[in-house]
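Bump. Still looking for Endonuclease NucS C-terminal domain-containing protein structure tokens.
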Amino acid sequence: MQVEHLIRDWLVLNPEFIEKGLEVIEKEHHLPDDIGTSGFIDILCKDIYNNFVIIEIKRSDSAARQTFTEVFKYAELIRTKYRARYSEIRMIVISTHWREIIRAFSLTVFKSPFAIKGLKIFLDDQTKVPKSVEEVVPIEEMSLSRKFMEQQIIYLFTSERKMEHARQVLEQKLNVAHVYNYVVVILNATEAHRPITYPYAMNVAFQIQEKDESLLCIERLRGKRHSDMKEEEFDSEEEYQDYLNDVFMAALEMEKYCDSIEAGYGEKFEATVTGGVWKISSIKRYGTFSIDPRYSEELLLKELKGHDGRSSNKFTGFCESSQKERFNEIKSECQYCLSPTPFWAEIIDYILSKLQQKKEKFRLIVDIYNPDSIVSAFYFALTNGTKNYLPLFHIFIDYIDSDKTEIYIGEIYSLGTSPEFKMFTPMNDNEIFKEVLSFNFMPDNEITAFRMGLHYGVLYSQIINGIESPQQFIELEDDEIRLSNAMYYPIEDYLAENISSLRQMISNYNRVYYKV
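Sorry for the wait, here they are.
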């Protein structure tokens, strides 16, 4: 008798070895499949809560690698045959060998709609029956992430030689901390800006860490003296993790190796590399960021800028309908940059939720630019003579099996009314300063836009067989998208009709902006 069968037969007689209260329904439970190969579950049980429990036993490494394909097939067949809900199906994978499948198991645990548990069993050398068991702990989900911390750090230098030495020191310190996944962007001031004090810089971004991992890194760097707060002093785990990230960066103690240090983040990195003062000289990748063959420089820079959901004002994402996990990430992460504009946030969430329910195959592109303050965005648009500073989003949904594309465009439009704010009048600086302060630090962009005579509008159109329908304004009402009968006008009309007020606004903003 094969050892696998011996283990199975022994567990059938001793189900409580696996879990207390487990009751065997059948050994080698047959599951017919009308559209594929039928299957046999090693042991089908039910637990004390009357859930189905699928038990699969794999002993050899080669067999273990096939485990998750089989067990998911069985779970779906159980769901179909017995009309069971996802919440009523559990899976227990039992193996003597876990080296080959621990990573696949970990990903499955975190992503599966079914509850999954792994058990490692130890066999008696003589009888080959199980003598002890231990639960397999999955690798932490966050350690499988490739995302960057929200905080980055910028080291500034007077010489290129000093910068290279600092990079080598940083590499050594991070090895001591067991931090292996990070990116260093080497920046040089452009020729036109070489007279600046520090013409060389390193922008460093680290992979996200979990709390326990951060604490270990800080301990390895002997950096506990940089921490003066305890976890219970924070309102949330997120706040505490942000604090630990700051402590970790302080614990690197790079001050004596550079000339100045600045805090960094996605939006700041984007402003740095697009502002004309700095140019990227090289990008040095470490760990995960160096070995992924799909990881182009374009994708890397996109993530460093926070466009994957870490930026408060920019998001870009694309996927196909078959990429369900990526679709869920897009749907969730795009909301971060939409928080100052509830109307856009709600309508985009509604569009993606409805799309998620469709059975048609599709390709999706979501591109959002949503600055924190509509007033500041409008000021920079006016002074730079371009609409590129104004809020804008595009959603393209291309249906693969039909010649149809849906297009949603969000832009700023005129209501046909004049601005109400003191900002647009010759008031004293104190009054204007208070308004600018509230615009930038307590933004309520949709109300602010309304009082400016502006509207966050959304246009919808579709292309069928190469013919585009007329664009129409839409709104979300009673949990349905409806065509809007309201009248909105191009932003160019607003500029022409309010030219004197806008000139006054620019003058006022120039006087008080740097006070904020």
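The first strand starts at residue 23 and ends at 31.

Edit: fixed formatting.
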